Predict the 3D structure of the following.
Amino acid sequence: MTAAAISHIRMELAREPGHPLGDRDHVYHLYLPLTADGHIDAEAWRHNRPLSRVRRLRPGETEARGLIVHGPGGRWIFDYTDETDRDNESGFRLKDERFVQGEYVSIREDDGKMHTFQIVSVQPA
């Protein structure tokens, strides 16, 4: 099977307590196959799992890299391969989200809290 078209999605921390303007340096880069309307293409993901990756950048921390995996109950999980399962993160209802510029996505980060991120760009990887 040929590789699926992968999109590069950049998300920045949106406004929240402690970050009234958001944080352009608290960023996720997702690399995922998307459908024409911007949803995660689960079928394409199944055939091209190693291409679905995540990079997380936060001020004062080393960049974290991992894979995006489909977990129990249809959840999408950010599996940071060189860290423990405790450090994995999950998106809130990512299967229902549209990854288009301007939309918001919630991620349960490794601090156990839900944080909202704005999609600032979606382009071919």
Summary: The chain has a mean pLDDT of 90. The first helix runs from residue 42 to 47. The beta strands are 7-13, 23-32, 53-57, 64-70, 76-79, 89-91, 104-108, 114-124.
